[in-house]
Amino acid sequence: MDIFLNQAFIGISIASILLLIALGLAIIYGTMGVINLAHGEFVMLGAYCAWFLQSTFGIGILAALPIVFLVVGFLGFLVERGVVRWLYERPLDTILATWGIGIVIQQLVRMGLGPDSRYVQGPRILEGNIELAGVFMSNYRLFLIVFSISILLATWYLMLRTEYGKKLRAVIQNKEISECYGIPSQKVYALTFAYGAALAGIAGALITPLVSVTPSMGTYLVVDAFLVVILGGIGSFLGTTIAAGLVGEATAMFSFFLNDTLGRVAVLLAIIVIIRFRPEGLFPDKIRK
């Protein structure tokens, strides 16, 4: 029983990481209709930014998070202004363009910093474990769970309870009429894309104590994030949250009872079966477009 509970905790921690990555993807994909295949590279840039700040200036991960948020968000803003803004309502072109951008970013990092793995030390204040009812819970993984929930609530408030969120929802429903009322749709799109990229950057920084930092690390993470977004329902915060939990728990459990490879295959097969019968996802967004 203790082993099962420990795996359940690991599954929740995996879900919290997936939620952070998928949240930015869901915002960009669900609100702007852009399939951002460079999202994984924003995760990678966040990880390298955290590594650079720690190895060069001795700045820990927690203190580096605001810097990572601003740096990666600004890079996302530049990508949107430089490329993506010209490709709205052309989904195939956005796929190809963001794919190309992702490859360019990855190769630039590989040429500039090399292919070697980098390691980032976790916060000393979060070292150690807590034992509760026979379950050993890492302090850092507990922090990830709490932090992910906080980001989710902050994003929900931003999108549904602020002036910016109202403008974004107005643009989603009807871009032309929104512009007639003075809402700058281009500015709204740019800020939304930058926010989604910044969330990916934060996710990349936070996972550095758990995985090695490499130029290709984002490629593997973004696949799971896409699965979470599609399974939960495009544009649905609730769906993304629940899907992240399901995928995280399924990954932990299947990996425990089978192995990592077969566990991943089992998760993918389960998602394929669900999407076969619910192609719109488990909790599709009901907003009228």
UniProtKB/TrEMBL annotation:
Quick one: where is this thing mainly located?
A: membrane
Keyword hit for Transmembrane helix: yes
Keyword Cell membrane assigned to the entry: answer is yes
Membrane topology term reads:
Multi-pass membrane protein
The cellular component terms of Gene Ontology attached to this UniProt record, alphabetical and capped at eight, are:
plasma membrane
Give TM segment ranges.
6-27, 59-79, 91-109, 140-160, 188-213, 225-247, 254-275
Q: From which domain of life does this come?
A: Bacteria
Family stated for the protein in its record: Belongs to the binding-protein-dependent transport system permease family. LivHM subfamily.
Protein name, UniProt field: Amino acid/amide ABC transporter membrane protein 1, HAAT family
Species in which this protein is naturally found: Ectothiorhodosinus mongolicus
